[in-house]
């Protein structure tokens, strides 16, 4: 068992995701026990990337549902293909099967059965995930905390029984149990009912060593000193009181920007020109003036001596 988890850890590293043991253990258990995995952590710590990389190494499809305020069941589960339904009705009319004149015992019911069949159904992410026939996909329900409580309640049937109910078609059960990963930035509290149905994983912002490992893994051509400076700088800036604390995504964006500008070390000018890669809030940018830049840079240089 431990060997399987270690193998999973090394395969994720090869795919560019540096995962500690608790992360790979949680993924292993979610797959083995066929239980959804709820992943929480600050924005930018790599929650979504877990699903992307896990699907990649499982060689299966990643089906993503991005949650938002106002997300309804039809956008997440299914919609009826209205043009196809109308086409079916018109075809019946052309065949002379006008319901009022048809010889069939219940022509209206027959037409209804046809226009509300699977052929006229548009699968949205949740339905698509449970109707896969070949391999169980990875279903990512991303930022579930952005959806409202009603949608969260709707998810319970899917997360516990891997089935959904469509009034016109009845209950549809998963042929292949998908590997379900849910992410949350904790913008609101999720219900106990949803939490009970899931395994749980918390991801902290990366420490210095992990951040450097991620930089080297994703950007193998990065200058070694620049990577060290970026790592120390990001560790320190996260200790400041900010409206939006930068995550690993910002670290990678910043490193790519500095490499694109052919910078091999940090200096006040380079930081000022590229600060928008790190800070994504007006108040943070305004508060982070030249003096703060010099202070942080001096701390980084002292650390590297």
Automatic annotation (TrEMBL):
Stretches assigned to the AAA+ ATPase domain: 33-204
Annotated CDD domains: AAA
Domain of life: Bacteria
Coiled coil: none
Pfam families xref list: AAA_16
Protein name: MoxR family ATPase
Organism: Candidatus Manganitrophus noduliformans
């Amino acid at each position: 068992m431990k060997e399987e988890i270690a193998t999973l850890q090394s395969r994720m590293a090869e795919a560019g995701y540096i995962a500690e043991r608790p992360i790979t253990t949680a993924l292993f258990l979610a797959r083995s026990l066929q239980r959804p995995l709820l992943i929480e952590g600050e924005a930018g710590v790599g929650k979504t990337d877990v699903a992307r990389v896990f699907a990649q190494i499982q060689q299966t499809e990643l089906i993503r549902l991005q949650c938002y305020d106002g997300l309804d069941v039809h956008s997440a589960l299914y919609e009826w293909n209205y043009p196809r339904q109308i086409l079916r009705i018109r075809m019946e009319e052309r065949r002379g099967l006008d319901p009022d004149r048809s010889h069939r015992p219940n022509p209206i019911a027959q037409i209804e059965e046809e226009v509300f069949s699977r052929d006229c159904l548009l699968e949205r992410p949740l339905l698509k995930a449970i109707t896969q026939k070949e391999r169980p996909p990875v279903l990512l329900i991303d930022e579930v905390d952005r959806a409202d409580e009603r949608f969260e309640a709707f998810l319970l049937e899917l997360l516990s029984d891997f089935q959904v109910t469509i009034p016109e078609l009845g209950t549809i059960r998963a042929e292949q149990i998908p590997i379900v990963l849910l992410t949350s930035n904790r913008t609101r509290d999720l219900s106990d009912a949803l939490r009970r149905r899931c395994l749980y994983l918390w991801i902290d912002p990366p420490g210095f060593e992990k951040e450097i490992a991620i930089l080297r893994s994703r950007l193998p051509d990065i200058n070694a000193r620049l990577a060290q400076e970026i790592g120390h700088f990001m560790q320190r800036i996260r200790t400041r009181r900010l409206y939006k604390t930068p995550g690993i995504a910002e670290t990678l964006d910043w490193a790519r920007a500095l490499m694109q500008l052919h910078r091999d070390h940090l200096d006040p000018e380079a930081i000022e020109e590229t600060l928008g890669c790190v800070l994504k809030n007006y108040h943070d940018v305004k508060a982070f003036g030249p003096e703060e830049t010099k202070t942080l840079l001096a701390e980084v240089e002292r650390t590297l001596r």
